[in-house]
């Protein structure tokens, strides 16, 4: 297949490009390099374009044929979205509309959309499935839910086939391929823990130790980035025989507390990891764990990274030898 990976110079997008290329697909990467890295584009043709610039999108699509588009382009920092909501709605919603218009003009009818667990807001049950109430509590989550609604409307109006994949905490790396999580502003726990262990990051903080969880710290569901790439590839095939719009949650189905992650990282790194407890952050729910039963049963998704330490170990090797 010929697949356009929007945001393919970023963390998850670069792993998607690797997965597709390894299975024999023709990959084209589109990215504006605002947060992605040119060095992460190792598979396929690279097109520098911006979803907020329709002319650059038209140039990217002109003279090319794509069977499907996988869409990772987004601003994704929850706290920043609260401070800069206009920027998030412009980038995540308007940018997606521009992409969808370009797809329609060039008769590309299949899209896999990178959504998020943030569409659910504060959980009302231990395992979050697709039927859970959608009540996002920040502009980032709202922007992603807006796009999901746009995709549903586009299915009716234009026959667009789409799959939205709502994943929880992406983690891990493929150090053997030279790709991993490299954000200029890092907010994710595992890379911050590992940077602390390496002495390349700021002092590690644990935001709150008085949550109603076994050890008082937040519990999250971590899914390896390679397993996410696998799910996106399965979603492309699923649309062959399933018109309309669809959504699936992706996670391991088990939660690990912040302190459990720190302990596992210390074991992988072979050193104690020092941290300080800071006040809770606004909007952090105590527990976020996915039910991925639907993705397993319908897409046939079978995650291969099912325990915490191997996920952290892959990230550790990437951060230890990071090249960009």
From TrEMBL:
<dbReference type="InterPro" id="IPR036291">
    <property type="entry name" value="NAD(P)-bd_dom_sf"/>
</dbReference>
<comment type="pathway">
    <text>Carbohydrate metabolism; galactose metabolism.</text>
</comment>
<dbReference type="InterPro" id="IPR001509">
    <property type="entry name" value="Epimerase_deHydtase"/>
</dbReference>
<comment type="subunit">
    <text>Homodimer.</text>
</comment>
<dbReference type="Pfam" id="PF01370">
    <property type="entry name" value="Epimerase"/>
</dbReference>
<dbReference type="InterPro" id="IPR005886">
    <property type="entry name" value="UDP_G4E"/>
</dbReference>
<keyword id="KW-0520">NAD</keyword>
<keyword id="KW-0119">Carbohydrate metabolism</keyword>
<feature type="domain" description="NAD-dependent epimerase/dehydratase">
    <location>
        <begin position="3"/>
        <end position="251"/>
    </location>
</feature>
<protein>
    <recommendedName>
        <fullName>UDP-glucose 4-epimerase</fullName>
        <ecNumber>5.1.3.2</ecNumber>
    </recommendedName>
</protein>
<comment type="similarity">
    <text>Belongs to the NAD(P)-dependent epimerase/dehydratase family.</text>
</comment>
<keyword id="KW-0413">Isomerase</keyword>
């Amino acid at each position: 297949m010929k697949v356009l990976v929007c945001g393919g110079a970023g963390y998850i997008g670069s792993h998607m490009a690797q997965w597709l290329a390894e299975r024999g697909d023709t990959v084209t990467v589109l990215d504006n390099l605002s947060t992605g890295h040119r060095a992460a584009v190792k598979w396929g043709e690279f097109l520098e374009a911006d979803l907020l610039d329709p002319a650059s999108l038209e140039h990217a699509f002109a003279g090319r044929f794509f069977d499907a588009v996988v869409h990772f382009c987004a601003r994704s920092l929850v706290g920043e979205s609260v401070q800069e909501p206009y920027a998030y709605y412009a980038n995540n919603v308007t940018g997606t509309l521009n992409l969808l218009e370009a797809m329609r003009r060039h008769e590309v009818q299949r899209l896999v959309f990178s959504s998020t667990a943030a569409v659910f807001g504060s959980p009302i049950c231990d395992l979050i499935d697709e039927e859970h109430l959608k009540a996002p509590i920040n502009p980032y989550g709202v922007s992603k839910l807006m796009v999901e609604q746009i995709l549903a409307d586009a299915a009716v109006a234009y026959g667009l086939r789409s799959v939205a994949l709502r994943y929880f905490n992406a983690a891990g790396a493929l150090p053997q391929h030279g790709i991993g999580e490299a954000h200029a502003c890092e907010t994710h726990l595992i890379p911050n823990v590992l940077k602390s262990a390496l002495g390349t990051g700021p002092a590690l903080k644990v935001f709150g130790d008085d949550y109603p969880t076994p050890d008082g710290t937040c519990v999250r569901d971590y899914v390896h980035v390679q397993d996410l790439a696998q799910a996106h590839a399965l979603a492309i095939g699923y649309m062959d025989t399933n018109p309309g719009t669809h959504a699936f949650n992706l996670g391991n189905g088990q939660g690990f507390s912040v302190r459990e992650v720190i302990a596992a990282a210390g074991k992988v790194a072979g050193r104690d990891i020092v941290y300080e407890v800071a006040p809770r952050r606004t909007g952090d729910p105590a527990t976020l764990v996915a039910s991925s039963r639907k993705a397993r049963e319908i897409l046939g998704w079978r995650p291969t990274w099912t325990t915490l330490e191997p996920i952290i170990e892959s990230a550790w090797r990437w951060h230890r030898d990071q090249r960009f």
